[in-house]
Give the backbone structure.
Amino acid sequence: MLIASLKPRTMGGTTNTGLLIYALDRAGYPVTGYDADESLQLSAWARDVDDFPCEVHEADTPAFAETVYGEMDHSRINVVDAGHAENHPDIVDSILEVADLAIVTVSPTNPDYDRLTTPERGTPLAKVIRRSAALRDSGKPPATVVLLNRCQAGANSPRKFADLLAGGGKDGSLPKWDVLSTRIPRRESIASAVGFPCDKPERKAPYDALVTELTRLGYLPAPGASR
Ligand SMILES: Nc1ncnc2c1ncn2[C@@H]1O[C@H](COP(=O)(O)OP(=O)(O)O)[C@@H](O)[C@H]1O
Ligand SMILES: [Mg+2]
């Protein structure tokens, strides 16, 4: 299967992608990474760090569906880190053509919520995802979930923005998102994760919870089940 990690602009996407890969590996899944962001930070992380659990292939191409996807081992959990959708819509379109699950990283703040839902320029990500249906074998967009990142402990903002996203905004007129109950906390040790060893408790626990929730929701096979 292919999981796409998406975000409209910088939101903690690469951090989440790398630590999700690390958690999937610890849960016993065979996992392979793909870096479709021109900054290539995920592939550099995998290259430079001893405990990064798998290979990450460079895959920053608008021909992702044709060239990269065709070569994948589909019995594995393949995870691709997409670049900022605002800047690389062509690559994101090609990933959405073939992804089984899209995880959209969003921070619970006004500017990040606005960039996701009502950007001043460009196409809202919900519309980009919806229109991918036209190019997919299923004729439907990929299953999509929102993962709230950089959530301040004890703050109201994660709940507030989860409600806004799930409810289609203040008046219900915007697209409605499935928001995961797993929240990635705002933490210094997560902020400094990219490019550094993964094996720290705070770089594990929230992402173990993420894998558990994705499994419970049926997006991942049960660990150890044949795929
Ligand atoms: N859970 C977190 N807590 C605090 N800071 C975070 C967290 N996740 C990411 N960051 C910070 O957010 C910024 C963007 O992260 P990055 O993963 O590079 O995002 P993206 O790939 O979306 O551009 C970085 O400065 C990183 O340190
Ligand atoms: Mg990144």
Remarks:
- The longest helix spans residues 13-26.
